[in-house]
Every structure is written in structure tokens, then in C-alpha cells.
TrEMBL record:
Gene source species: Dehalococcoides mccartyi (strain ATCC BAA-2266 / KCTC 15142 / 195)
PANTHER family: THIOREDOXIN
Protein name: Redox-active disulfide protein 2
Thioredoxin-like fold domain location: 1-75
SUPFAM superfamilies: Thioredoxin-like
A Pfam entry, by short name: Thioredoxin_3
Superkingdom in the source lineage: Bacteria
Lineage: Bacteria, Bacillati, Chloroflexota, Dehalococcoidia, Dehalococcoidales
InterPro entries for the chain: Thioredoxin-like_fold, Thioredoxin-like_sf, THIRX-like_proc
Disulfide bonds: 10-13
Length: 80
């Protein structure tokens, strides 16, 4: 699974990256987590606001931080 955290480095963007790493570890998933800060690369996705979370090239969260439970559900749904 490839997970991309889209954001230019704001507090929420950094928090989303941290939450993603924690959830992957807690769930014991095999995933590559990539932080995308380049605005040109971010604009290639259908995202109006950051932070955004992309799992296997599908935008699953945009413009907000998910709860821990939402994050885990998203990751588990995309892991299979």
C-alpha cells in the first residue's frame, strides 16, 4: 500500500502524517508513507484543501484531520 500525505508543511499536514504513521504501526500494515510538499504535485490530485490523504492513488481525506477511528477504517478498507 502506498500512502501519500499531501501538504505544504502546515501544522495539520504534519499532524496527518504523524497520525498516519501511528495508525499503520498500530494496525501492523505494510505501507510506504510519502510526504508530498510540492504544490505542483499536490495540484495533480483533485484536492481543494490540504491536508489530504491519498491511499493507492485515491484521495480519501481532504481539508480535515480524520479521527483515529476514521483513519484506521480507511487504512483497513484499502489494505485488502
Amino acid at each position: 500500500m502506498i500512502i501519500k500525505v499531501l501538504g505544504t508543511g502546515c501544522t495539520k499536514c504534519n499532524k496527518l502524517e504523524e497520525m498516519t504513521k501511528e495508525a499503520v504501526l498500530e494496525l501492523g500494515l505494510s505501507a510506504q508513507i510519502v510526504k508530498v510538499k510540492d504544490i505542483d504535485k499536490i495540484s495533480a490530485y483533485p484536492v481543494l484543501m490540504t491536508p489530504a490523504l491519498v491511499i493507492n492513488e485515491e484521495v480519501v481525506v481532504s481539508g480535515k484531520l480524520p479521527t483515529k477511528e476514521e483513519m484506521q477504517k480507511l487504512l483497513l478498507s484499502k489494505a485488502s
